Amino acid sequence: QMFTQGVVAVFGDIFIIIGIVIAMLVLNWKLALVTFAVLPILFWIAFWFKLKVRTAFREMRKRLAVVNSYLQENIIGMRIIQLFRREEINYQQFKDHNASLLDSHLKTIFYFAVFFPGVELISAVAIALILWTGGGMILKGALTLGSLVAFILYAERFYRPVRDLAEKYNILQSAMASSERLFKVLDTVPEVLDKPTTIKLDGPVEVIEFKDVSFAYKGGEWVLKNVNFKVNRGQTVAIVGYTGSGKTTLINLLSRFYDVQEGQILLNGTDIRDLQQCDLRHQIAVVQQDVFLFARPVTENIRLQSEIPDERMMQAAQAVSADRFIEKLPEKYDTRLEERGATLSSGERQLLAFARALAHDPPILILDEATSAVDTETEQLIQEAIARLLEGRTAMVIAHRLSTIQRADRIIVLHDGEIREEGTHQELLKKRGLYYKLYQLQYENGS
Description:
By secondary structure, the protein is of the alpha/beta class. It folds into two domains: 2-186, ABC transporter transmembrane region fold; 207-446, 3-Layer(aba) Sandwich (Rossmann fold). 57% of the residues lie in helices and 14% in strands. The strands form two sheets. A six-stranded mixed sheet has the order 6-7-8-3-9-10, with helices on both faces. The chain has a four-stranded antiparallel sheet with strand order 2-1-4-5, covered by helices on one side. A hairpin with a 2-residue loop joins β4 (262-267) and β5.
């Protein structure tokens, strides 16, 4: 709309104004100067209008974004709102946000209501000055009546594109206010960037090493402190600890969503900061607790645009028992899911996430609380599938349920960002340390 109704029309109006100015100067330069005498006032009003309306449009777009996000939030969380009987409260809050948006619209309209009559008044003053000056010139015989009439018509035609420009400015400012917010997002510099020259990772990943790794989020305390451990090829290493101990941060650092402040994370002895991010993440598949599914067919949710053959995709689904519920869907693998998989249970969404990870066949598999959202029966199916499919694959498992990691080759216990204990399930129980306390706590709660 900005280009079709704004920019193109603006250029047309500018050319018309230039043509009229030349014609007026040729017809009678004295009357032309009289006409242009009011332009400084017009420019001042236009400058004031520009400043006010730009701020108003920015504020209007911000408030519109608040209304849209609040509306989306309430639609997604509709069940919670109904369960806690917040319909009236949230409706009143929505009305408040909407009233704020209306106020910003009215403020914008007010500036236009001042500006347009101002332009009309200035054009009327200019015509009056032309009549006064031109009338005097006619009386003196310096100007004919026909020339004065022609000049008045030119003057009226001169101010018409000026008014049109003001109307187009409305469209332009609306577009600029929207584009400013868009470009602010597009111009955001990524926190993690590849180096100008990177190294290609050759061969399979034989070892993952966290070497003296310390990390803190911006302006925060250290989340990880001097963490050291290795994961050899084919090993399954479990990471446990209380909430906030830094378990998920380890995974985020390995996936390079953040860079470490101190220490190194090495793959086959190569710092991951020396690798391209796409090359690094090609080696890793992460299954998270909060599974994101797209409003697309089951096949696309498993493939994620990768060229995975149907046979391998179905084998992955069968391996994690996801085919049990997929086959019951109306169109099976071609069934289009609702947004975020709303029609599936949490366990079914989790199984699809497992199928997605296994279909991509990554050398490194990361499970981040991946079984905490499923029931006991589904968890058992997943554990059986994982036991078969992790053979020869490097895996890091973050779990709250200690029963799911008892067969891990090694268990690392994190506490306050530090490794407190390390060993197998039985070795850690014999130490009667932090892991033993966690195990006893879960055992008592389970009983």
